[in-house]
Specification:
homopentamer, alpha+beta, 7-stranded mixed sheet
Chain lengths: ~375, ~375, ~375, ~375, ~375
């Protein structure tokens, strides 16, 4: 699971410091805008392309439930249309432009703003987090994405079909359906994170962890980013569920409760995964410690046995003229016996300390420590 | 205590992403469905097998208190019967099918949904967590298990006897009795975890920990999973206890309070065990450190004594023609005396630093460090 | 401070799994029952032994304030008398029998249940935690202990004296007095734990910690157990203080507030001690690290100086026929000078790195690191 | 990112101990005072310099919205003017003088006090935290800064222009605009901290971390300081948003909510960064451990192979007269073969333990561990 | 900053276990009592010495605002006078005697009890925590200190002056003034702790930390003790600020809010310091690890280079008769060249691994790691 430099996951684009309230700047690298309107009622669905403010207002006030589905901020015209033609509050428009807002619900009368954060898999299997902004009016929902994302495709299919539940309900149900799609979009990422964690667990409790700490760090970073986003998302859903000023009618709230439930479930899984990752870190560090112990023990045993033996050899390698032992018939044999006795004595001492049993068991039972 | 790959304990089956609300998929490996109905009143109990939607509805509306006891999702017919014949809300049915829901109470009028999570010992002594779904109506309870579990056997016995308290009370008491069985099912697992922890404690404070970290990790993982489940369970029980829309009458709430109490007790024990496991991890890591210290100390003492001695021997092993000492009568003896003096000096220095006393006490008093 | 196997501090006796609500089992090793009744009014106190259900009911309904003081569950008769003759709720009786309940207050009309947990010093200076169950009626209090404990002795003295405040107040004051005795019973244990911590602190910041980690672990375990118990106790006292359904009259609540205060104070001390223990663990681990560093430094200095010297000696110990140096008149002296130069050079390098200053200061200022 | 000594970030100037309430002392090194008044209405703005108490009161009571913009405490005259001429509560004046107050809102009738903390980049790229005090009256705002700061420059520009929104609103909007400037001033600091963290991440997962721990410590310290300040700021904004006694009218509260939102966003980013920094610390420590392991392994392999070989050489270097092997024709060759056999045996043993594969992979795959 | 044995900071004197409610024991080492009464109104102040219960009551009921300022518990007479002559509740008197109560406000009608904890610098620069008990009546405040403390001296000065604000207000303002003096008494301690932390920071990031861990531990211990005390103090002040039954009139509450604010500020600083201390611990431990790494690296490089060289020397030091190389004319030179080649090869290998660059940079850039 690749992720971009960590801080980038959290740095958010914001208005220039000290700018007047409601100011926004469309980033230079904004994707071109593409706006579609889905106008639907039970059984049929009309799909239009929106090219100017008038078409936008016409679609919103069509009478049928309208989903104005915009992707890309382009040159920012959309934002001016929203503010000046559709009457969206300037602060709401600024929140759409200055992406990186936390998920929230803002009550602006008949043009409520809902901000959500979608998490998707990047082209190179990393995690991308994108702001999803919804303007919910009496009969329309305007959704604005920074760049085209696949997460709304299933909703588009259902809307086009004309037969799905969404076609028989109002704009509030459409808003719910979009939020639900955002929340459900976290599950594939969690599945992938779960697989990475299982792989890591096998590697760590197995013999040869390679690059483990870095991979653990990457997963923890991803989980951290997902947690932050989903935590706020759950709170925003809870607010919409409970508070009075939201556009959601009583029957739709039953569904919204379901989306809230999914958000809680996602958070639960993320938290479990984070605890797992912390546990794995501990096991990994412990295995590193054990490996070190094993290495040191080998060095110590070998050194401690041979250093005294070499010393004995060194003594009899001295060139003194008067070294009686060197002339004895069995001097050499005696020296070898002395060395053997020292070696055996040390081996016995090691065994009593329990150091020798270790490497032996290390091949079978002890293997689970590494 | 064996547990499956950790992430598997938390990965939950969920509806396909972007699916329409209320959608569910019966997993391909679902167990065959087996549905029994217990119709009881004080003194007697009738037991039936349910084979189609009509029999289901007949049992539910029999007038007597009915427990419809279903095991296995099979081909999903049960789910359609519940939705279409018994009038259970589609979202509730989806929650039954998409197992892995958090424990919760959902008020859907006269077909309330209660989701609980049962923890049981697996065939190979691991921990399995299964969703228990209850639909509570005015005179009936439908319980759905993913696969046959033993936890409801005692309740079945009591219902069949016709004399137990449950036979004299309503459907709400039956729902309580099933929830109580789920909560009480955690105690045997905790007992086992307690034994594992006590064993680990003995191993760690004893001499030879083998595979300790891995076993600690496994216990912590299990406790983590149990904690997550029971935490939500306690909250759900608390909600049912306090809120107005639940099917529980005042006299049954006294009993429900007792189940809530047991849930709190289970959580308490789990938390204590987790703290214990963390404490043991610390003691274990400290013992690894101490062991390392001891090894290094041995190596250092032996090396530091013999390296200078070997150097002296090396000096007198040089082949210079003009080495006056080698010709002295007592040169050899002098060299040996010099070596002994160096060795004794170093030993005294070690003793003053307190390094030599250590291994000596290490056999008795110091033993409690390992 | 000795404590039993940790898990045992938390494992609690509970009803068999799946048993019907209100079921209980008297443990096989229950202590024989001994029941005394103290019937008192201002100035005098009558003391009776209770041998059957009738005597129990007579004492409870005597008109005077009655303290029925039971120790030991024996064959369980007491429990049946309470349930069947005195009208205590079956769930309350089950909570008395299945000890290990968390401290709590349960409102059952005129037979309220209060569960507390007493902590006492064991025979072998360990900590024992025992359940104290109180049934509070309009004019009587039944107290049930699993086994005889000394904590109620001061209250018995005061009751017998006939002059204490408790003799002039109602059953609610008596219940308060018993709870107060339970809470105050924690102070001697805390005093002991404080002494152990002070000893540990001296040992750790002193020179020779022995068995430190294990002793720290034992204290932390004890503090953990006390914290769990007292945490719930404080909550239960807070509930009794604030809620309406409790048997405590307004004047007695002033006293109950005092007991609550003591509970908060106990918790405060426990938390401070836990923080202290964690701090000591850190200091201890750091001292282990420092010791390791010191050992490694010694080894490194000695090895790094002598290994090159030995190499030089080894070179001149080679047996080549054509080694010009060996024939030089001052070859031997030159070799010795070379060795001395190498040694001095290395010593200077060590001093520049600051490694040599260390052991020197280690005897005075550095001593506080070990 | 340079920061001053950590404690200095938190030490605050306060009134002398035991001083009477409302006492203050102007610090000896206070900056000279400079007071400007901006009197504005839609379209035009008058700017005056304030030199005495009368001019201050005249500006405040001018009728137009007045921003009295003071920088530097000077000789404290301003404080006396505020207290004695403008009727600001003595405690509020003391809070202005004794900087280091936590961000807060204090309701003193028509002279409310708002304290905020501005974070700015120091001259030497460190973080400076300055108190911003606002006195909000019906038609004026007095802002007091300890020293000239650039954060209010954009607001001054907007006020002077006469066309900005702020010129058409009341004093409450002006107060909001100043608070908003303070909150937005945190973003450039966060951007910088994010860059530092990204650099650190690259360094740590790359090959050669230098000074890493110290730089991590510096970032964490800065984040800690920013978190403390912003945490209180968010709470103060939340209080102003919700409570009744604040000077903010309903339309301005919509904007204040936006500022509160930005504060939450800043906190979010800080918390993410702190988690990141903790994660990086773990990765760094693990890489240090791995490096140590690698070093020890190299030492152990080399030592363990050559120590026995040297011993063999030592044996045949002994000077016994009767060493049969030394006279054998192939003794030398035999000894070399023996040595080679020992070396190969040890290498095979190392390979079986998996120690030899490591350094090889260490150059490519293992490189991500360091 | 010297502190007493840690546990002593938390152990509190309490009533004997099982004692009747309201019981107290005057400690044997109590300081002699000294009681002064300050009777004041605007402009003048009368000061009396109180020697018996009658004088106490006369002062309290004088009509003027009376501050009865008692230091030392002596033989306990004061406590009996308070209880029996002034009508203070027995539980309140017990709380005064059994010092170590947590800071709190207790409503006993017209004789309210306020308990605070004062922190002061000890004679030997350690921290002492003393209970300050206030009995607040309609026109008097009785303050009881265990031993003479300087913290009330500024208040005494202000009272004696007759011109301070305190002389124009009621008993509630006097109580506030005393509480304010207690809270402000924490600032000098925090200043000292800040200096200690700054010193430690310099030592740790500098070259030679000595006794660091112990000093860190001492500061953390002190901060822990101060935090516990101030945490409760803030809560008690918050309670007095908000609740109805307190003796504080509305105008005085504005001042009390200020004291509460100071308490929050103290807590804030303490928490920041604790975080700093934790951060410093991490940096310190990391520097210890780095030092160890550096030592091991030196040892490894030296050993790994010289061990093979010594082996070669050892081979040519063997005494076989048939060693052709020893007879070669350039055998010796060849051996030296071989050794040089091995040494250079190893050096190159170390450089490629990056081990050699380290110690070189360690003198300049790497210095910030230690």
């Amino acid at each position: 699971m690749h992720v971009a430099g960590t801080a980038e996951l959290f740095v958010r684009r914001t208005a220039p410091v000290g700018a007047k309230p409601g100011a926004f700047e469309v980033p230079a690298d904004a994707q071109p805008t593409r706006i579609r309107a889905f106008l639907f009622e039970a059984g049929r669905c009309e799909e239009r392309h929106i090219r100017d403010a008038d078409e936008l207002v016409a679609a919103a006030n069509d009478g049928r439930v309208a989903w104005i589905d915009a992707e890309g901020l382009g040159d920012g015209s959309l934002l001016y249309w929203l503010r000046d033609a559709l009457g969206v509050h300037p602060l709401a428009v600024a929140d759409i432009a200055n992406t990186g807002q936390r998920p929230k619900f803002e009550d602006y009368g008949e043009r409520d703003l809902i901000v959500a954060q979608a998490a998707t898999l990047d082209d190179d299997a990393g995690v991308a987090i994108d702001q999803v902004s919804l303007i919910v009016g009496p009969t329309f929902v305007v959704s604005v994405l920074e760049r085209p994302l696949a997460i709304f495709d299933p909703v588009r299919e259902r809307v086009r079909s004309g037969t799905a539940l969404v076609c028989r309900m109002g704009a509030d149900f459409l808003a719910y359906a979009l939020l639900d799609a955002v929340v459900d979009g976290f599950f594939p990422l969690l599945e992938q994170a779960g697989e990475v964690l299982n792989d890591l667990e096998e590697d760590i409790t197995g013999r040869r962890p390679v690059g483990t700490m870095r991979r653990l760090h990457a997963v923890r970073r991803t989980l951290l980013a997902l947690h932050r986003v989903m935590y706020r998302q759950r709170d925003a859903l809870g607010t919409m569920l409970r508070s009075e000023g939201t556009p959601f009618s009583e029957p739709v709230r039953v569904y919204l409760r379901d989306a809230h439930d999914h958000a809680v479930q996602v958070l639960d899984i993320i938290e479990s995964y984070r605890d797992m990752a912390i546990g794995l870190t501990d096991v990994y560090l412990s295995s590193v410690s054990n490996r070190m112990n094993e290495i040191m023990q080998t060095l110590t045993i070998v050194s401690t046995i041979f250093i005294p033996l070499s010393f004995i050899a060194g003594v009899y390698g001295m060139n003194f003229e008067h070294m009686p032992e060197t002339r004895w018939r069995y001097g050499y044999a005696g020296a070898l016996v002395l060395m053997a006795a020292v070696a055996v004595g040390l081996l016995l001492w090691f065994r009593r300390r329990g150091w020798l049993g270790r490497p032996g068991t290390g091949d079978d039972a002890g293997g689970d420590e590494r």
